[in-house]
Amino acid sequence: MNSIQSFLKNHKNRLINELIALLKIPSVSADSAYKKDVLQTADFVLNSLKKAGCDHVEICETPGYPIVYGEKIIDAKLPTVLVYGHYDVQPADPIDLWTSPPFEPVVKKTAIHPEGAIFARGACDDKGQMYMHVKAMEYMTSTGNLPCNVKFMIEGEEEIGSESLAWFVPRNKEKLANDVILISDTGMIANNIPSITTGLRGLSYVEVEVTGPNRDLHSGLYGGAVANPITILTKMIASLHDENNYITIPGFYDAVEELSKEERAAMGRAPFSEEDYKEALQIKATYGEKGYTTNERNSIRPTLDVNGIWGGYTGEGAKTVIASKASAKISMRLVPNQDWKEITQLFKNHFEKIAPKAVSVKVTPHHGGQGYVTPIDTIAYKAASKAYETTFEKTPIPQRSGGSIPIVALFEKELKSKTILMGFGLDSDAIHSPNEHFGIWNYLKGIETIPYFYQYFTELSTKKTN
Ligand code: BES
Ligand code: MN
Ligand code: MN
């Protein structure tokens, strides 16, 4: 047993209990009722960075929730790894569907996690994965195994669009200067099939509102003679895809980067079972853009989805009414080269144009961000790949993800450094859903693998400059 393995064995219970304590604080950034808890979580993270051996830690105030910063600089000539993560979580609702309360973490065994998984909001996204880095740091500093400089930047607004971080980064370029950015906020294919995330999709998130008459109307007295905003909205939304599930917004695909046959063939070789996928989701068939596979549809292709829709009477019983307004929240996942602001504008123009005269529409952009692709011919990728080879005894597969971390593109623009995405979660961990969980095995494997990244990255970087 090597040094990191005995560290994990000796401290296993403490490592789990500390994460459980972090998960107990409901740091829901979207809901101001949790403001105190979000701030308390920032303090928790600050203290944990101190304990992990950072020489300097700091709560950095922003117009929104603070950014927790920590660093240990051992030698200015050595490379610097900047770790990014987030301490905020998604709202827990619908609460009724949780088998145990979202902020009372419990360890339960599942078919995929026979060694147990911690069930709690944020277990995987991102408290559990962020905390792996804190504990890997603690291991390295307490055993004299830290080979380079480290900076931590842990934010509290990732789940609501990272606005404050986008404000902070350009103002603190020197403080944040680094040779590589390391993030664990994505997933991998399976516990026996490690993978490195090489792409994130961009995002444009908008809200639309359709208004008909100036007030709710009796659906008998007025029905048939005025436009029903709910009917119109649903028609408009339905028209955003054609019969092949292509998005109909003019210009939407103009910038989309088409992958070569070879790249698509390589993607197709990644282990994937359409049958297992359908079984896990209890669906009879998958659905999406004609001409693309499931894995292509959810990673290299852009999408448009309604995330929520409301209007009219939804209470108990029946009320005969034509609503004055109907609304929806719509997200568009974008691929590299698609500019999120341009896409937002195209959407707005199109949506306003297809509205019949009988209604008025309002399109309100929320947040967004660019997609990202990690090159695989870099020292950072090689170091990550070697780290997985060491602890999983398998070469990780590069794989693009469908999710978004919009701030990553901004890091590259402002800090001029590449990001490496070492995710240890699984798609089945139910992030953003009821019963989110994170495998104990995954948590410990992450802590075990991360120090090797530092070691190999330092070795490969110093080789290059010598
Ligand atoms: N950690 C996720 C993103 C993610 C998860 C990427 C799994 C790849 C694999 C992140 O916290 C997230 O949820 N991002 C949001 C976007 C954000 C602007 C709200 C998303 O993807 O919906
Ligand atoms: Mn996340
Ligand atoms: Mn998330």
Give a nutshell description of this structure.
The protein is α+β, with helices and mostly antiparallel strands and 466 residues long.
Secondary-structure blueprint:
Layout: H1 3-23, H2 35-51, E1 56-60, E2 67-72, E3 80-86, E4 106-108, E5 117-119, H3 127-142, E6 149-155, H4 163-171, E7 180-183, E8 195-200, E9 202-211, E10 217-218, H5 229-238, H6 261-268, H7 274-281, H8 294-297, E11 303-311, E12 321-322, E13 325-334, H9 340-353, E14 360-369, E15 372-373, H10 379-392, E16 397-400, H11 407-415, E17 419-421, E18 437-439, H12 440-465
Parallel strand pairs: 3-6, 3-7, 7-17, 8-16
Antiparallel strand pairs: 1-2, 2-6, 4-5, 5-18, 8-15, 9-13, 9-14, 10-12, 11-13
Helix pairs in contact: 1-3, 1-12, 3-12, 4-11, 10-12
The structure holds ligand BES and manganese (II) ion (2 copies).
Overall description:
With 466 residues, the protein is α+β, with helices and mostly antiparallel strands. It has two domains: 3-200 and 371-465, Aminopeptidase (3-Layer(aba) Sandwich); 203-256 and 302-369, Alpha-Beta Plaits, CATH 3.30.70. Helices cover 33% and strands 21% of the residues. It contains twelve helices and 18 strands. Strands 1-2-6-3-7-17 form a six-stranded mixed sheet, sandwiched between helices. A four-stranded antiparallel sheet has the order 11-13-9-14. A hairpin with an 8-residue loop joins strand 4 and strand 5. The longest helix is centred in the last third of the chain and has 26 residues, at 440-465. Residues 125-126, 158-159, 161, 185-187, 200, 203, 367, 401, 403-406 line the site of ligand BES.
